[in-house]
Amino acid sequence: MSYPEPRYLGEKGEVNAVFRPADQEPELVGPGGDRTHYLATHASTGGEFGLYKVDMGPKSPGPSTHFHKSISESFFILSGHVQLYDGDRWITAGAGDFLYVPVGGLHAFKNDSDDPASMIMLFSPGAPREEYFEKVAEMAQRGGKEFGDFLLKHDSFFIDEEAG
C-alpha cells in the first residue's frame, strides 16, 4: 500500500490547524450526565474522519447492538470502565484499551459501573454524526417509519436480538 494521491498541491504549506482547549464545554449534554465533545466533525475534517470525546455517567446504557454500512468506528477508553461488545462478547475495557470495529462489524457499548467513564470515538470516513447524537433519543420516542428513516439516514442498523 502506498500513500494516497496528494490533495494539497501548494509548495509552502498553510496556516490552517484547529486547536480545541481541554476546558471547552461539550456540545451535547444528555440525561444522566452524559456529555459529548465534538473534537473533529465531518465538516471540520472535510469528511476524513469524525472524532468525539464521550463522557458517560454511571449506569449509562449506550446503544444496543448495531452496525454501519459505510463507516468504521473505533473506541479508546480514557478513564473508568466501559463495556464494549465486539460482535462476539462483552469486554470490560479500561483506560488505554482500544477497540476497532470495521465497516459492517456488530458492536455496542455501555457503562454498567457506578462510576463515570470517558472514551474517544473515531468514525472513518467522517460522517455527519452530530445530528444523530442530538436527535436519536427524540426520534426513538417517535418510533415508526420516521425513526426507521432517521436510522437509515445515519447509517445505523440495529439488530433485533439482544447480544451477549
Residue runs with pLDDT of under 50 for 5 or more positions: none
- Could you give the order of strands across the largest sheet? 1-2-3-10-5-8
Structural class: alpha+beta
Q: Over all CA atoms, what is the radius of gyration? A: 17 Å
Reading the helices and strands in chain order gives EEEEEEEEEEHHE
Shape designation: globular
CATH architecture of the domain at 28-128, by name, is Sandwich
CATH class of the domain at 28-128, please? Mainly Beta
Instruction: Assign the CATH topology of the domain at 28-128.
Output: Jelly Rolls
Proportion of β residues?
25-35%
Amino- and carboxy-terminal Cα gap: 36 Å
Sheet bearing the most strands, described?
Answer: 6 strands, antiparallel
Portion of residues within helices: 10-25%
- Give the count of helical stretches: 2
* Number of DSSP E strands: 11
CATH homology superfamily of the domain at 28-128: Jelly Rolls
**How much is the average pLDDT?**
94
